[in-house]
Amino acid sequence: MTDTEVGRRTGSVELLAGLLVLFLLVRGPLDDVLGTPMVQTWTTIFVSIVLQAVPFLVFGVTLSAAIAVFVPRHFFAKALPKHPALAVPAAAATGMVLPGCECGSVPVAGALVRKGVTPAAALAFLLAAPALNPVVLAATAIAFPDQPSMVLARAAAGLAASVVMGWLWLGLGRAEWIKLPDHIHGDTRWRAFAGAAGHDLMHAGGFLVVGAMAAATLDVLIPDRWLQAVADNPVLGVLALSLLAVLLSICSEADAFVAASLTQFSLTARLTFLVVGPMVDLKLFAMQAGTFGRRFAARFAPATFVVALTCAAVTGTVLW
């Protein structure tokens, strides 16, 4: 063993010993902080968001890697209409049959773009899949047993918002705004599949954690009395629940039960919560930035918020 190796090993042992001593010194104050109700609530929200999202994230990156490696490029050219304007609603309709949340749809949309699908169609799929899939609509029906029209309203407003955003990107979007990270490739298809899935999981998972931390922090800082103050105003109620959906970052499979509990708000306001949340929230923004680049997310998320809010408000006004 060389002197350099001995020095490195000694340094590692000393570092570990120092960390253990530091932990023992701050253990008492740290226990006091971690035992406070606010910190416990923050931890519960953070863990619940991550646990809800991880299975769908794993499903999404697995499907994304399978699309990138095993599906031939010409398949999508045949499956979707050649005209980009027609490919957008077709891709949105395809998103309705994928049982997953936004954590899974983001990497899949990235794989579609890599395979040559027009970004407008891939983005319509990205928005439609978490908002309109059968699991989400079934959960909505269970959460609103006395309001079956809520399922129809959510499907109609979500589909409209997805298609409108796809068409907006088709007309106004720029290719340089999207910057997809390079995938890891292997010398065989299965190694390429494993490398691509592992790369996307680590990349998107990191942004998921950041988004979940931000959502949990904002959740514990929003006083309940603020919600009571705006619930009686129809316009403020819609805006408040739209912003609340962004901040809470609840998985689309569970948000209907939260919306059903907000009985002080109108049906239109709760519909807005259900439409905006799966399309624009903190963890989704972070994951979009990690998958497509920050320039993309900074433009796409605000536009999606306005379109989703408008579609939900119009749908609710017409139905109720």
UniProtKB/TrEMBL annotation:
<keyword id="KW-0812">Transmembrane</keyword>
<feature type="transmembrane region" description="Helical">
    <location>
        <begin position="120"/>
        <end position="144"/>
    </location>
</feature>
<feature type="transmembrane region" description="Helical">
    <location>
        <begin position="234"/>
        <end position="250"/>
    </location>
</feature>
<feature type="transmembrane region" description="Helical">
    <location>
        <begin position="12"/>
        <end position="30"/>
    </location>
</feature>
<feature type="transmembrane region" description="Helical">
    <location>
        <begin position="201"/>
        <end position="222"/>
    </location>
</feature>
<feature type="transmembrane region" description="Helical">
    <location>
        <begin position="256"/>
        <end position="276"/>
    </location>
</feature>
<protein>
    <recommendedName>
        <fullName>Permease</fullName>
    </recommendedName>
</protein>
<dbReference type="Pfam" id="PF03773">
    <property type="entry name" value="ArsP_1"/>
</dbReference>
<keyword id="KW-1133">Transmembrane helix</keyword>
<keyword id="KW-0472">Membrane</keyword>
<dbReference type="InterPro" id="IPR005524">
    <property type="entry name" value="DUF318"/>
</dbReference>
<feature type="transmembrane region" description="Helical">
    <location>
        <begin position="42"/>
        <end position="71"/>
    </location>
</feature>
<feature type="transmembrane region" description="Helical">
    <location>
        <begin position="296"/>
        <end position="319"/>
    </location>
</feature>
<keyword id="KW-1003">Cell membrane</keyword>
<feature type="transmembrane region" description="Helical">
    <location>
        <begin position="151"/>
        <end position="170"/>
    </location>
</feature>
<comment type="similarity">
    <text>Belongs to the UPF0718 family.</text>
</comment>
<dbReference type="GO" id="GO:0005886">
    <property type="term" value="C:plasma membrane"/>
</dbReference>
<dbReference type="InterPro" id="IPR052923">
    <property type="entry name" value="UPF0718"/>
</dbReference>
